[in-house]
Amino acid sequence: MPNPRMCPSELLDRDLTGRHYIVTGANSGIGLTTTRQLAEQGATVTLACRRPEEGRDLAAGMARAGERVVVRRLDLGALASVRSFAEEVLETGEPVHGLINNAGVMNTPEGRTADGFETQIGVNHLGHVLLTELLLDRVRSSAPARIVNVSSCYHDVAMKRKGEVDLDDLHFERRAYDGWAAYAQSKLANLLHARALAARLEGSGVVAVSLHPGWVRTRLARSSFPLWVQNIVLRPLFRWRGMIEPWEGAQTTLYTLLSPEVENHSGAYFSQLGWYRDSGLNAGGWPMRSPNPHAHDDDLAMALDKHSRQLVGLD
Ligand SMILES: NC(=O)c1ccc[n+]([C@@H]2O[C@H](COP(=O)([O-])OP(=O)(O)OC[C@H]3O[C@@H](n4cnc5c(N)ncnc54)[C@H](OP(=O)(O)O)[C@@H]3O)[C@@H](O)[C@H]2O)c1
Q1: 30 lines ligand 1 (CB under 6 A)
Q2: Which domains does the chain have, with CATH numbers?
Q3: Average pLDDT of the chain?
Q4: Ligand 1 centre from 27 Cα, in Å?
């Protein structure tokens, strides 16, 4: 595998004082690394955590280093929690210059969120749709601003399941549940969500994009195998096969948040090293055209956007 793409150092040295970013899933993996970097650059960061106690311990360490970090509870698997989180943020009156829809679960056993959605589409996509909509006016009024959806190369193919969104059966009620197909669907939905947002936000100064962070050594695979397999037994083999560390995994997120180049690519998909149906694309690209034809279907993007907003009680 080639070396991972890295964000230019001048972007990582930029002073972000006065900028406010919200990172979902900020207590672990890519979200935690992204948070630390933004805070080190002087930004204020809201850590949106399902388990705020872990977030608070991490934030205490960052605050001791003089960083401005706030922890708020957010469970994307419960719309009521998303609403309370958004209310708390809006009440502060603070601008929101970046919303990083990063939290996610992968290949979970069949299950439902508090609102009855299939777990992966519910947490990875629908929770983030409601969060984004509730904060959208604030993000617009903070422009220039960015919305970054952390998708995956598995929106294309996930363990041989081609990524598809079934608008008539988002929740696997009429088809047999398949954890990888559900993950692929949710990650394609992340990409389409960014595309629909970009169209709706054209001319507003708010850029919306999606990305694949790489195959990153985090806790994401815990529903698929015990993490000691990845972290100890197979770590050298996985690294050789392309698994990267969280710092490398945060590079695409940081680039899409900080690079002026991204302004010209609202709606686009940015990829770290990945695994695509066309292996010629495995080196990724900032930005890159997805090989999944559904990723370019604007009718599907707009239909999903409308349907999702209805499901979360908007529109
Ligand atoms: N790692 C990879 O190889 C890889 C590849 C492609 C895409 N991605 C994407 O990268 C993103 C970040 O994942 P990661 O690799 O950093 O994994 P991770 O270490 O497991 O982090 C996932 C984060 O999401 C949070 N989360 C899960 N369910 C939630 C919920 N209901 N409400 C709020 N937060 C919730 C987790 O909180 P808890 O700690 O409470 O569980 C955790 O903070 C995901 O969207 C994933 O799909 C990762």
Answers
A1: yes
A2: 9-311 (3.40.50.720)
A3: 96
A4: 9
CA dihedral sign, ordered 260, 265, 267, 270: negative
Amino acid (one-letter) located at 57: D
Quote the CA–CA distance of 152 and 158 in Å, as a whole number.
9
Above 80 in pLDDT, residue 221?
yes
CB count in 10 Å sphere of residue 261: 13
Any idea which residues carry the catalytic annotation? Answer: 183
pLDDT in tens, 16-36: 999 999 999 999 999 999 999
Cis peptide before 144 (omega within 30 of 0): yes
Q: Alpha-carbon distance 258 to 146, whole Å? A: 9
Half-sphere exposure of 230 (CA within 13 A, CB side): 17
Q: What is the per-residue pLDDT across 246-267, written as a single tens digit (0 to 9) for each?
A: 999 999 999 999 999 999 999 9
Ligand 1 lined by 106 (C-beta under 6 Å)? yes
pLDDT in tens, 31-64: 999 999 999 999 999 999 999 999 999 999 998 8
> In the predicted model, is pLDDT for residue 286 greater than 80?
yes
Is the shortest distance between the CB of 100 and ligand 1 below 6 Å?
no
Cis peptide, bond prior to residue 226, ω within 30 of zero: no
Q: Closest ligand 1 atom to the C-alpha of 75?
A: 32
Fill in the DSSP letter of residue 4: P
| Beta strand segments in 97-217, E | 98-101, 145-150, 157-158, 161-162, 206-212
Distance separating alpha carbons of residues 138 and 135, to the nearest angstrom:
5
Instruction: Answer for the pair 22, 100: CB distance below 8 angstroms, yes or no.
Output: yes
